[in-house]
What we know:
The chain is of the alpha+beta class. The chain has helices at residues 64-67, 83-96, 110-113, 118-129, 154-163, 175-178, 214-220, 229-237, 247-262, 277-289, 303-318; strands spanning 2-8, 12-17, 20-25, 28-30, 49-53, 56-60, 69-70, 100-108, 131-137, 140-153, 181-187, 192-198, 201-210, 271-275, 294-295. It has a single domain (2-318), classed as Nucleotidyltransferase, domain 5.
Amino acid sequence: MKLVAFDPGYGAVKVFHEGGSFQMPSAVAVDGGRRVTGMLGLRARRPPLEVALPEGRFFVGEGAHDWGRPVESLDFERLTGSPEMRALFCGAMTRAGIEGEAELVVGLPVEAMSGPEAPGTIQAVKAFLRGVWIWSAEGHERRLEVREVLVTGQPAGALFDYFLDMDGQPLPERRGEFASEIGIINIGMNTLDLMAARKGELVQRLTGGETLGVRRLLALLNPDGLYTLAELDARLRRKELDVRPALPIWTREVLGFIERQWGRGWRRFARIIAVGGGALLLGPALAERFEGKLFVPDDPVISTARGLYKLGRQRQRRG
Ligand SMILES: Nc1ncnc2c1ncn2[C@@H]1O[C@H](COP(=O)(O)OP(=O)(O)OP(=O)(O)O)[C@@H](O)[C@H]1O
Ligand SMILES: [Mg+2]
């Protein structure tokens, strides 16, 4: 069966499957049915992807917020059934070209995976995603039957991306490190997640998260609040934003948080893996801090989704 990995990030949702990888900004807007057209001298921009669900019509992804009423605060900790989340999921599947039958591997934020509510959250996410999805987009009706849902934490994706190949087989040259402690740093849009793992298991003591992600850097660059977070984020992804004025401050904040969480403990790690879009910006500072232990994958933004896919492949092979 087709295997699809889904990493629902606060800034962008990522999909990884046999056909490749795909990412789309986590933007959703309700289609209010109004259009400004034919204004002299103004070219109407190409509309964003529109998804029609039984609950209504939504714009999703790039440009969505320019076309409808934005839905703010998509709460991924409870990826359990709002119409907006349904629209985002269907939009991502449309753009990634996924229809028919699929088995899904989903990564949740560390926060959603810890504490007494975690088992309930995992059950709810599974119940939400499993089953038959019917929606229409780009002019035709689509159908996706999600037969199976595997839920794990997002840092597990980064971990297995490092240790497994595309078939879900252990990479021989990294096998030796698997039994050692590994540190994982995910610098996402919203959160900075830290985790330690040994033999694929989470080490709780060294695990924690804080909203010190790239949004903090963007806030430092936006003191007067002239731009929305989504606008600045889009400019950053297009490499049109000069982050240099705020980079040193944010770097100190991030390193300070890691210091408080890990202290000297990081010296025990055989390897420290840094993923998320923030790893592109902080890579050099982290490499200097962690003296030869740092590993940043070739594509740190997609790494989590790719690792979830590899984990799914391993499960499929083991039957
Ligand atoms: N190619 C890039 N160059 C520079 N910055 C980038 C690039 N890609 C992404 N980013 C920035 O990195 C940030 C984090 O991206 P990422 O996709 O890892 O976050 P996320 O997974 O959506 O968030 P979270 O993990 O907190 O839910 C984004 O806000 C984006 O601005
Ligand atoms: Mg992320």
